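Q: Hi! First time doing this. I have a protein sequence and I read that you can turn it into a structure. Is that right? Here it is:
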Amino acid sequence: MIKSFRGLLADGAQDKIRLSTKKGKIGYKIKHFVVLAQTPGTGGGHEAVVKVYKTKQTTIDGAVDFSDHNLLAVDYYSDQDAPSYTAQSMVMFEQEIFNQDIYITGYDADGSNSINYYLELETITLNDNQAAVSTLRDIRLNPEPV
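A: Yes, that's right. Below is the predicted 3D structure, encoded as structure tokens:
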């Protein structure tokens, strides 16, 4: 089964996607993730970084660190003044399975523009061992309360 989520992030904002369940027996994998400026092609330039995390972020910026174990996906969107220039780059860590809430952050390096996101998650039924491993991994890697 596929679940989809969409929203509009203001510059520097963070959305929470509620996924956690009491027993943690439903896991998720990112299948599709795309972003688009709220007003594409209108000039002025957009240069946004939208990231999906396993934990709530205290700092929202455009820095990308693939060694961050909480990072699930990144999408970079650029729409500059030249009408022929549109760049987009997306990275998803597709094999990552999670069973807790996730957070989406948006940062515009070229102003204070809002950006749309669309996220599709594949649901996966976890057995008791898989649910326990996923939950314990998240607790071990994120010891501070969320």
